[in-house]
Amino acid sequence: MGKKTPADYVRKWTKAGKVKKKCCRSRSRCKKCPVLALKRAKVKVAAKAA
């Protein structure tokens, strides 16, 4: 298996129902927002690389 990208993590979380498919663009982003999920995934990938 190759390296996982942040998008791979978000795709997996979306299939599991932990992340919504589309952002509702509310001012305070909800916890299921795909935009925030991508940010969390980038942090996770960076932590694994370090």
Q: What's the alpha carbon Rg, rounded to whole Å?
A: 11 Å
Q: Give the overall form.
A: globular
Main beta sheet: strand number and arrangement?
none
What structural class do you assign from the helix and strand content? mainly alpha
Written account of the structure:
The chain has 50 residues and is mainly alpha-helical. Helices cover 52% and strands 0% of the residues. It is built from two helices and no strands. It has helices spanning 6-15, 34-49. Helix 1 packs across helix 2 (34-49). The longest helix has 16 residues, at 34-49. It is globular.
Quick overview:
The protein is an all-alpha fold and 50 residues long. 52% of the residues lie in helices and 0% in strands.
Task: Supply database-style keywords.
mainly alpha, 50 residues, globular, single chain
